[in-house]
Batch of 2 targets.
Target 1
Amino acid sequence: MASRVVKGGHALTEYLNASKAAEPLWGDVQKHVLDRASQPSGRRLDVLHPSEMVKTDWCHRAAFHRLRLNAEAPGRGRSSFTRENIFEEGHRTHEKWQNWFSQMGRLAGNWKCRLCGTEFWNDTTPAECHECEAPRSCLTYAEVPLNADPLRIGGKADGYSPRDGALIEIKTLGLGSLRYERPEFLERYMVETESFGKVPDLTRLWRDFRRPLPTAVRQTQLYMYLGRHFEDLEIDRTVFFYDFKSTQETKSFSVIYDEAFSEPLIDAAAAIVDCVAADTAPYCNLNGRSGCPSCLEFKERK
Ligand SMILES: [Zn+2]
Ligand SMILES: [Zn+2]
């Protein structure tokens, strides 16, 4: 009985540990951040997200259930302070680059007015709100919406430069984000030292970093497909900016649009939408009739 009540795993342990922090303010801010992370995020549950579609373990059956229920499987969304800290740092880095491109007059996208709440498209930085004429200082860049309504796909790119015919993707590269996102890439740069045991050789990792991470490439190919076919944007490449956290150095890469790349994902989305309309779950594409961890999470919610 008790074991059912304290279910919550890593996130709960982290939350309880926050109470034991030696400095009360440190403990309180950790709890505050984890509390906020447990609130509904505003992330839409009624659409397929390109970030999930491009994962090698994207389960079509789990996607079907989430769309049908308009809810995540129970137990999802656990976090940790470090994870939240990485997300927040990522947001700050986006804002920094978007500000620079906006000041250059090279940033198109949606802008949101904090005064009247209106969101509108502009090809450069607008001087004022299109609706209430509030000044530029009241406008926040709301990025580049990439929606395919008939396929129920909803996403957002970090930026779009019409003059360059390019989407812009901004990434941070650091020990923390690599540990979460690409542990196998980081593992290649672990070296044995006499004094400290196994440590990452970050200088070599950064020197060898010559292309965007594969998941990021898959995601941006899908973004470009959506931008061209559903948002009428003139795009033939994506420019990536990677900020290296350790030294604040930056590398930029260009990825050329490849139509064929996203076609299987588009077909899969169409099949999932058909299944939702027919209210018949597809088989799990990862593990057939037995199901995979993602779709099995939904089993009790049917
Ligand atoms: Zn306004
Ligand atoms: Zn599955």
Note: The first helix runs from residue 2 to 5.
Target 2
Amino acid sequence: MLGWIIYKNHELELKPELYEINRLIAEAEKHAIELHVLKPEQIDLIVTKEDRKSILVDDKPTSLPDFVLPRMGAGTTYFALAVIRHLERLGVPSFNNSDSIDTVKDKLYTHQILAQSNLPVPKTMLVKFPVDINLIEKHIGFPAVIKTLSGSQGKGVFLVKDKQSCKDLFQLLEITNSKISIIIQEFIETSYGKDLRVFTVGGRVVACMERKSNSDDFKANYSLGGSVSSYPVTPEIEWLAVEVTRLLGLDIAGVDLLFDHDHFKICEVNSSPGFQGVESCCNVNIPKEIYTYLKLRLREQ
Ligand SMILES: Nc1ncnc2c1ncn2[C@@H]1O[C@H](COP(=O)(O)OP(=O)(O)O)[C@@H](O)[C@H]1O
Ligand SMILES: [Mg+2]
């Protein structure tokens, strides 16, 4: 079997996702899968009704793989998405598929879909300029969490403590970049500095861990130096994670849950979740879970 990982750098220049890509490659060998890492820019899109068996890679006609594994998550560009869609149209299955990747890149759209199905999400507003701070105070309250629409590793996420600091921040944003898309969200205080990351593959929970920040940061991201430990999967956690991935159409997902007193709220969903943290504390082999599922889907032994 031949598979392609779609990633922002190619084989020779792998950096931030090194752990994940190396693990995927190492485990692929054990499953008799030949895996190549391609960056979208290596592929040329020629849309035609002829030649539906090959594609141009580095200017050379290349036969199509049996599957693709996009690993660009929130950083998926229009170009990358176009490549994945093209491959899908040529009959190459993508795990995850292009629609689900596009959906979860947008944190507001994700919440809109989940809220429509009555799932618990923090109250969220799309910010428009000029900002009506009183409206925000009335509907969201303070402290509040401000996020870029698309982002990962805790990078575009801020906590604003009160009305004045929120006003100041929005003024700054308005004069520097009023076209920026941001959301403002209810702060789930009982989750301060901690959250859960639930890893699902093929509609099943394969691992669940608690992340805790190691400083007074309210963000619990592992990539920001948070510590991780395995966490028991309760029926509530399982149902939430499975339902979220089903509604969003994800084959592979990292579902972030916030502790809301004795229950949970869905924080965000990742389409190419890292798994260094989860493999370090839960007894799980993520690439193996992925390939076993993928072979089932592709009806291979
Ligand atoms: N509404 C919220 N209330 C409390 N904590 C939050 C909230 N939203 C995010 N956080 C914290 O910030 C972290 C990063 O937010 P998240 O939306 O997952 O951004 P990223 O995509 O950068 O990981 C979360 O893992 C969580 O610890
Ligand atoms: Mg997150």
Note: The radius of gyration is 20 Å.
